[in-house]
Amino acid sequence: MKLRLSQKNALWGFAFIALPVIYFLFIFIVPMVQAFYFSVLNYNTLSTQTHFIGLANYASMLEDDVFWTAIWNSLRYALVRAPGVLLISLITALLFQNITRGKGFLQTLIMLPFMTSGVAMAWIFNLIYSRIGPITALLSDLGVQNPQLLTSPKTALYAIAAVTIWGSIGYYALLFTVGLNAIPNDYYDAAKVDGASPWQIFKHITIPLLNPTIVLVSIIAVTASLKNFDVVRSMAANGGPINSTLTLPLMIYLEAFRRMNMGRASAMTLVFFLFILIITFIQLKLITREVRY
Amino acid sequence: MISDKSLSYDIASAKIEKRKKTVRTTLTGIFSYGWVILVGLSTLLPYLWMLSNSLKPRAEIAFYRLLPVHPTLGNYIKILTKYPFGQWYLNTFIVTALSVISTLFFCSLAGYALAKFHFPGRNAFFIFILATVMVPVEMLILPWYVGAYKLNLINSYAGLVLPGLISAFGVFILRQSILNIPDDLIDAARVDGMSEPGIYFKIIIPLVAGPLSALAILTALGTWNDFLWPLIVVSKTSMFTMQVGVTYATQGEFQDTMQDWGTIMAAMTVASIPMLVLVVFAQKYIVKGITMTGLKG
Predict the structure, then answer these.
(1) Domain-by-domain residue ranges, chain A?
(2) Which residues of A touch B61 (CB under 8 A)?
(3) Nearby residues of A228 by Cβ (< 8 Å), 6 or more positions away
(4) Nearest-by-Cβ selection for A220 from B141, B200, B295
(5) According to the model, what pLDDT value does residue A75 have?
(6) Please, is B83 exposed, middle or buried when counting C-beta atoms within 10 Å of its C-beta (0-12, 13-18, 19+)?
(7) To which CATH superfamily is domain A64-287 assigned?
(8) Cβ contacts of A238 within 8 Å, gap of 6 or more
(9) DSSP state, A217?
């Protein structure tokens, strides 16, 4: 049988795309449906009995004070970490525009944490925050009451947020730099001819034209903050002291692999997904502005 | 008519303006350098602290000195003889290599199909693949674990590598790059009698070498530093990847021997070195990869 050229082309296309599509089906879509299914089961990996229990997992989860503590912790972690890292990296990216000598070297330097695993970052700071660490010594010299930041329920979560801020300044500064470089020079030149001050240029040209980048980067930053697991797990272990560092991903992990309660953990992952979607939506509403060139 | 007086006044005020501007430029320069050098130093210091403490004998850890008085390799010898770091390196290397090879092959293949072939449902496939980016890994990881358990993939390389074989972002950036290749080039090869797989390997792949290198490095970085999935799918010490192994070793040193920080810092140094070396050589591709995807590995 002789195939027409267009049919042959279509067949080759199918042949090339088939395996990737099947892969995404089995690695993403099937597990998503399974997660829904697990969440309505009384599913404990230690017991052989599994049966349908309706929305009981959701009900017990919503009645659990610890779950609400985890939601609150995730929220407060993201609210400190995301604006913190965005502000510092935006300033860094803006000031990088003013320098030429040693720029490449400095940019490589601040990208180092991007290459470092969360585990290694976390343990370096576990030492720095420890009883014999320099930060503890500094704070106690300044007369601070509880200089061991990680052992106090008031400061532990923020101390962890500071580490992930430190760890991603280079990455976010790079994303902002890409956005800044995309602004056409003509706008700046025209503004300078008109005698605009640097502050006016920043306020009326840089910020509005950078808005799409700011929207994208802040959504990445908030989502990444909500999802962080490796640093929190390595610095907070089980969410102590007194659950003050228990974030949602950590609680899901402990529920599924310490208490072996897959059903309830699955219910939590669905709520977690919804939580991320809602926050992303709120963010889009709050920060998106029309860009008029 | 312009009087002499006003002209000289104009010149004088222009001079003042110019001097003001120079002062401002200098101040901006000083402030900018000051800030970025401060950020650079604060990035570097924790690494130096790690390195210096990994070289300190135990009695010196409590002194806040950046340089060890009696530097020793004892911590490294202890960590490398007590735990199977060689095996963990090998495991991580195998998993990383498999992920990278598979990601490059399948992402470019899918990207090629989506960019240059015409078949029913092509756009639907593309949107479907892109949409998977939205799903958080946390939601998938429990079903993955159950699936891996049922398929007997716990404690195996296959289990470790399974979720990282193809990335949707990889498909996306390769589709975009392959779209830029002129159709004439592909058609000419067909007229010359080149087979379809031949065109893919000999024409498409060499033309997207740049995006492929960027994708390779981001995938390697993501796999090497991945923590959550290896932590779940592997329970045997001999199958640990570097991040899980180093956590295991650290918890041992933290609890058993009363916070042996020197040894812990040596372990972190050993675990971080390969990727820190990579940044020096591959900075260009990392920057390129991030600019193309806007996302981490």
Answers:
(1) 6-39, 64-287
(2) 132
(3) A77, A118, A164, A247, A249
(4) B295
(5) 95
(6) buried
(7) MetI-like (1.10.3720.10)
(8) A246, A250, A254, A258
(9) H
Q: In the structure encoding, which two tokens stand for residue B155, read together?
A: 């404690």
Q: Note whether B92 contacts A: Cβ–Cβ < 8 A.
A: no
Q: Say which residue the tokens 């960590």 belong to.
A: B79
Interface test with A, best of B138, B263, B273 (most A CBs within 10 A): B138
Q: Do B46 and A166 touch (CB under 8 A)?
A: yes
pLDDT at B295 over 60: no
- Residue B151 CB coordination number (10 Å): 12
Q: pLDDT value at position B7?
A: 63
Amino acid in the structure at residue A84: G
Reported as type and span, the H/E element at residue B220 is helix B209-225
The 3-state DSSP class for residue B178 equals helix
Q: Is B118 on the interface with A (CB under 8 A)?
A: yes
- Is ipTM beyond 0.85? yes
Question: How many residues does the structure list for chain A?
Answer: 293
Q: What is the DSSP letter of B118?
A: -
Torsion of CA A52, A56, A60, A63, to 10 degrees: 170
Question: pLDDT digits over B170-200, tens only?
Answer: 999 899 899 989 999 999 999 999 999 999 9
Task: Convert the pLDDT of each residue in B9-47 to its tens digit.
Answer: 677 777 777 777 788 788 888 999 999 999 999 999 999
| Whole-number Cα distances in Å, A45 to A99, A173, B27, B125, B156 | 57, 44, 64, 35, 20
Length of chain B: 297
Question: What does each C-alpha distance from B1 to B4, B5, B7 come to in angstroms?
Answer: 10, 12, 11
User: Judging by beta carbons within 10 Å of its beta carbon (0-12, 13-18, 19+), is residue A50 exposed, middle or buried?
Assistant: middle
The Cα–Cα gap between A267 and A37 comes to: 9
Q: Between A and B, how many residue pairs show a Cβ–Cβ distance under 8 A?
A: 246
Tell if the CB–CB gap between A32 and B225 is shorter than 8 Å.
no
Within 8 A of B117 by CB-CB distance, chain A residues are 9-10, 12-13, 16-17
> Counting Cβ atoms within 10 Å, is residue A51 exposed (0-12), middle (13-18) or buried (19+)?
exposed
Percentage of chain A modeled with pLDDT above 90: 49
Contact B219, B293 (CB under 8 A): no
- Strands A41-42 and A51-52, by their bridges, are antiparallel
Which pLDDT does position B297 carry in this prediction?
33
Query: Distance between CA atoms of B169 and A136, rounded to whole angstroms?
Result: 42
* CA B78/CA A261 separation, integer angstroms: 38
Burial class (CB within 10 angstroms; exposed 0-12, middle 13-18, buried 19+) of A73: buried
Residue segments in chain A with a per-residue pLDDT below the cut of 70: 1-2, 289-293
